[in-house]
Amino acid sequence: MRGSTAGLADTLASGSRAQAAVLETADAIFASVVVAPAVVTYWQSTWTLMDLYVLPEDPVGSAATCAAFGLCCNILVCVFQTHMTKQLTPDRGRLMYYVLSRLYTFVSGAACVGAWRGVWNLLNECTGNSARTLLSTTAAATLSLAALRTLRNIVAAPFAVVVDSPQDYFNVPTMFRTSPSRTSSRETVLYVLDCVFSVAVVGSLVVFVWRGSWALLDIFLFPDDKVKSSWTSLIVGYALVVATFALQAPIRWAAARLHGAPRLLLADVYHLVSFLATVNVWRGVWGMLDLYFFPETPKLSNWCSHVISLTLLILLNCSNSVLVRGVYIDAEEPAGECVVFPCHYLRLYFHKERTKKRHRRALAAAAAARKEDASLPLQHPEEKV
Fold it and tell me: What is residue 90's DSSP assignment?
């Protein structure tokens, strides 16, 4: 669910330290207060609409249908990402690009929710909801992700904001970082297998961890009082969010001075803490929507939530934050960048504005130099002598 911060530190390293600290804090607040609730609202409404419309009388059939639809769509999006990146660009028409790219987000978002709902509910039907089973499956999935060095993928908003930039709008990193080839059928097959593994195996393991953690909270956190349980999750979640963001600077300092297994272990522990914050925030916001947003009219409530949340994220230019795509490797960034969360929204905006301003100044200076050269009187060769 989260992206990489590789190269962002150097790109955004401009301005004073005080200004950088203010923008970093503003980005954390924006991600926590605006993006995260909107993303959770989108997922809650889309998930519930599938409950209402996709074979509501057949839980197993509904889960299998959603899983098949979601996983197949996600695999296709992953396989054809290079083709879409080349064909869908603003250079071929900004309006057409904008419409098609947002349509891509709409379809991919439904596919992501469908895949998660399908795998989640199939697990419920197959393994049950006993605490012992949940603990064992969650621990096994967590250890498997850690062994694959993909544990960071369990983290989502408010610790990840994906800006809808044309450069990597359709980019879906795969587990083994393979690429398609027009000349080698072997490389193409390996690429397709990489996409299938990234979506079906790593993606499903992430669902296992989320489902187990969420269900355990349902069991142990005021199971007979949904109001108190939801409010507790919300408060605990945001308290952990504040603590996690506050600890980022010392954790980054420590990670920059560690190497190998100790650095990887520190990053994994930090990501686990941020995941505990994430799952509590999601569960709290989800519960609030179920309790207080027109619970007596579920269809109207969820359609409104779905449209409003997605429209808001599109207008804010971060609609791809709703997508679960790509596999990111633990501690793949250099030094302490491996524990920096990709919440670069305002910083990217101000960086782009500074870049535009410098570009305009350079153009103005070049134009002034050309004008000054043109105004100089021409000299004959004998005058120069």
Answer: G
How far is the C-alpha of 174 from the C-alpha of 304, rounded, in Å? 34
CA distance 71 to 52: 20
No. of helices (H) and no. of strands (E), the chain: 15, 0
* pTM for the model: 0.91
Contact 202, 147 (CB under 8 A): no
Give the Cβ contact number of residue 347 at 10 Å.
20
How many Å apart are CA 122 and CA 138, to the nearest integer? 15
Return d(Cα 326, Cα 203) in angstroms, integer: 9
Give yes or no for a contact between 169 and 101, defined as CB atoms under 8 angstroms apart.
yes
In angstroms, what CA-CA distances link 117 with 124, 151, 186, 209?
Answer: 10, 20, 34, 14
The span from the first CA to the last CA of the chain, in angstroms, equals: 72
Question: Span 114-125, mean pLDDT?
Answer: 97
Q: CA 193, CA 270: separation in Å to the nearest integer?
A: 31
Examine the pLDDT at 355 and tell me if it is beyond 70.
yes
How far apart CA 53 and CA 385 sit, in angstroms, is 90
Angstrom distance (rounded) from CA 331 to CA 347:
23
Mean pLDDT throughout 295-319?
96
What pLDDT does residue 352 have?
80
25-60 tens-digit pLDDT = 999 999 999 999 999 999 999 999 999 999 999 999
Residues 258, 146: Cα–Cα separation, whole Å: 18
Cα separation, 25 vs 321, in Å, equals 19
Mean pLDDT for the stretch of residues 345-364: 80
Give percent above pLDDT 70 in the chain: 93
How far CA 369 is from CA of 135, 292, 356, 363, in Å, comes to 71, 64, 20, 10
Tokens of 6: 């590789």
Q: Is residue 287 within 8 Å of residue 229, measured between CB atoms?
A: yes
**What letter does residue 339 receive in the DSSP assignment?**
G
